[in-house]
Specification:
This protein is mainly alpha-helical and 85 residues long. It contains four helices and no strands. The chain folds into two domains: 37 residues; 47 residues, no CATH class. It is elongated.
């Protein structure tokens, strides 16, 4: 008898978690994905294979790091002068 009660309780708690928390988390994940998508333009760059290999060695998210480096370089006139004397 106690095993049956435990079994039914287990089934109900799993169903509750799936329906309530699962849907709630899926909704939150969907909203997070929407907020990550930004209207930034996509560009293509020609870079040396060695430079690309260094960025790829940083792991996942290396293209975001590249974008950050470009933004910092664009805001710093000294770096731009060094790049194109």
């Amino acid at each position: 008898m106690i095993n049956q009660i435990y079994h039914y309780f287990d089934i109900l708690s799993r169903a509750y978690n799936l329906l309530f928390w699962g849907g709630y988390c899926w909704g939150m994940a969907r909203e997070r994905r929407k907020s990550r998508r930004s209207p930034l333009p996509i560009v293509a760059l020609r870079i040396q294979p060695e430079v690309l290999a260094k960025y790829k060695a940083l792991g996942r998210g290396y293209s975001g790091i590249m974008a950050d480096v470009l933004r910092v370089a664009a805001d710093n006139p000294e770096i731009l002068k060094k790049a194109r004397p």
